[in-house]
């Protein structure tokens, strides 16, 4: 994946995480960086990065964007041709695919913020597979669902009973 594609992808995920239901615009990113990190980046510079006109970032910009998007600075480079992470096991490779599938699902359900956020939280968890196994176990005991929901989100239980 190219650097510009990664930045566009991160804007999309960030917009969903912030409850916008859409990707953040370049201007929104610039304003948020200024407000949250007290640093600046120009819209034209961000646009050049995304379009590929600037294939590399300065270290200062890489560190700033990594901090803003909460990613490792090493992520913000072009992946080499044919790149794949060979240190991943079969399970962690499938975990990455599962996480991407969940992120895509969150984007599809972006209008339903509760579902979208739940899918993103699941994808961001360190052990997505364990979370799904837990969900399966909970679903095998239907009364447990209501009991857990009442304890964890009582306001949701009240709305359903009306």
Write a structural description.
The chain is mainly α and about 160 residues long. The protein has 9 helices and no strands. α2 (about 25-35) crosses α4 (about 60-70) and α5 (about 90-110) packs antiparallel against α6. The chain is elongated and about 55 Å long. The protein starts with a helix and ends with a helix. About 15% of the residues are buried. Mean pLDDT is about 80; it is low at about 85-90.
How large is the radius of gyration?
19 Å
| Global geometry | elongated
Largest sheet: none
Give the end-to-end Cα distance, rounded to a whole number of Å. 49 Å
Roughly what percent helix? 55-70%
**How do the SSEs run, as a string of H and E?**
HHHHHHHHH
Counting helices, strands and paired strands, the structural category is mainly alpha
What amount of the residues lies in strands? under 5%
How many alpha or pi helices?
9
Tally of extended strands? Answer: 0
Which regions contain 5 or more consecutive residues with pLDDT less than 50? Answer: 84-92
Arithmetic mean of pLDDT = 81
